Amino acid sequence: MIIVGGGFGGLKAAKTLANYPDLVQIVVVDKRNYHLFQPLLYQVATAGLSPADIAAPIRHVLSEYANVSVLMDEINGIDLKAMAICSETMKLHYDYLILACGATHSYFGKDDWEEFAPGLKTLEMATEIRRRILNAFESAEKEINPLNQQKWLTFVIVGGGPTGVELAGSISEIAKKQWKKIFV
């Protein structure tokens, strides 16, 4: 059996099926070698947590199961007739396949927005947002014109789901409480 994806769904499937070692051998394939606890990405983006605090090696998470192995690779196709997944470096055959690849954000046909409004689905995105927030506070610190300083400290969050609400609240909290002590 192959499971593509080391997120919540892939890990749950692997752990559940691993309880039947006489029946199934499992290979978990993910393009990253860590499981990401996405609900806390906003805290990485606002410097409340380190990326290492919300990422755990997939191999470690599944290490207690002798019938589970982990491969880091990016799958770019499925050969249904041959019952195989394909990447740039391998073709791996399966009896059963679970696709737990996760989700991504959408700009609804406005992909040029991404430059100004990064999503928040990966550690890379979170650290980019963190960089932008910290740089905005640094720029505001140097700004002598109060109107321009306020522009640096104005943040727009598109999306009012759990992540957007948490991110907005966290930015507000750090601006009013934590960073007020650090920045003038």
Layout of secondary structure:
Layout: E1 2-4, H1 8-17, E2 26-30, E3 34-36, H2 41-45, E4 55-57, H3 58-61, E5 68-72, E6 77-79, E7 84-86, E8 91-93, E9 97-99, H4 123-142, H5 146-152, H6 162-178
Parallel strand pairs: 1-2, 1-9, 2-5
Antiparallel strand pairs: 3-4, 6-7, 7-8
Helix pairs in contact: 4-5
Could you give a short description of this structure?
The protein has 184 residues and is of the alpha/beta class. The chain has 6 helices and 9 strands.
The proportion of residues forming helix, as a percent range, comes to: 25-40%
CATH architecture of the largest domain: 3-Layer(bba) Sandwich
* Count of structural domains: 2
Mean pLDDT: 93
Number of strand elements: 9
**SSE order:** EHEEHEHEEEEEHHH
Main sheet summary:
4 strands, parallel
**CATH H-tier superfamily of the largest domain:** FAD/NAD(P)-binding domain
State Rg: 21 Å
At CATH level 3, the topology of the largest domain is: FAD/NAD(P)-binding domain
In angstroms, what separates the terminal alpha carbons?
A: 57 Å
